[in-house]
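Recall that a protein's primary structure is simply its ordered list of amino acids. Everything else, from secondary elements to tertiary packing, is in principle encoded there. The following example makes that idea concrete.
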Amino acid sequence: MVNRAESPIGLRVTLSRRYVRSTDVARDLTDPRALDGYVVTASARSALERLVDGLDAGSTQRAFRITGPYGSGKSSFALLLCRLLTAVDERANEIAKASGLAKGTAFAPHAVIFMSGRRTSFSGDLLAAVREQARMLGMDDIAAGAAKAGTDEDPGLRARSAIDLLDRLSRDTISADGRRTLLLVDEMGRYVEHAAANPRSEDPSVFQQLAERAGGRGGAPLAVIGVLHHRLAEYVAAMGGVIEAEWTRSADRYEEIAFGDSLEQTLHLVAGALEADPSHTRPVRDAARRLFEEAFQHGTLGGDPADVAAIAADLYPLHPAALATLTVAARRLGQNERSIFGFLQTLEPSGFQRFVQKM
């Protein structure tokens, strides 16, 4: 019999590398291991299926906003989407196929322009992103036009120039190599907050203009996806009826894709995050399955019993009641995945790491 002190659980159960740090899309775009251990949740699966249709060549709705609370996995999903669209990462395709997402690999190749939101002029940053993309593609006239437009002090003219040059870049790109263009804006809410608070330095209609340019006609080579923590109108809710109504019109131009959370989704995330030594004995795995079967019978867990039973052994050493409590606590904190994996990483007295090192 193995002595517990000589073989703590922590030597046999570890946390996947991808959950030790949060996702930074700009940083991780070139990291070949950034998607290792990624779990396609129900929200991610639904979003991919909708985007396959939305980014189709004949679609007239090519502007989307992915909305969900802090830590709900939106940035990780954005990274997966970038990898699928650029068609250069076989790992992303493997993840999609393994999750039953045959449609997930059906995207036409795209040139992705990525922006990370900050509290400054969106049109100014968009011009900088267009300039950099044009420079990389050898489109020097567009790069020069973006540099010149960036010096314009009129926010309305600057916004129109940014969208016109982005549109021109997308058309020249598809003519040159057949790729469509996706503008992906992470933390888009920061740009919205700045625009709403500084109408003299940013044209608030820039987001509406962008969505209208991307959609409204089939065959458009441009699409835009914004990633936000709240709905657009919520960022300006305290600024009065007229301003809020204006932003509601902008929001209506974007089809919303909601990222939510559920207990079943949490179970799959945790199962994907915990890496167990295959030397676990059959009694341990069988005991884990029995625990989760009993949890369903007592109403502690919901969802599909067969689905969760299939991953029950991968949830060891977490008890079903602990997982149910963790999900509720994370939802109350509004951090979801971030709180869950913070618990799995922490060495605090009641944290997961302290437990597995002692037991």
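The chain has 16 helices and seven strands. The longest strand covers residues 110-116.
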